Amino acid sequence: MNKRQALIAAALVTVCAAGAGSAAAADDKEKCYGIAKAGQNDCAAANGAHSCSGQAKTDNGAAEWKYVAKGTCEKAGGKTAPPAK
């Protein structure tokens, strides 16, 4: 194995290991609707208004969500289910 192949293999191992850690971290989180501040949502709006993070236009929009630690959403004033369409 030459240096280039070794570097590629090491990079792939790093990417795979990072992905496994992210999956475990995601198990400890849940989507919480209605608590994201303007520009601080984690992904697409539940109502299809936009498809990317950071595009919330208003604070605490019902269709906007953020990941929070499991069990903390309702304490923060949010809901774990998306709003009815």
UniProtKB/TrEMBL annotation:
One family name in Pfam for this protein? DUF2282
Give the top-rank taxon of the lineage listed in the UniProt record for this protein: Bacteria
Q: Which UniProt keywords apply?
A: Signal
- Signal sequence span per UniProt? 1-25
> What name appears for this protein in its UniProt entry?
DUF2282 domain-containing protein
Record the organism: Duganella aceris
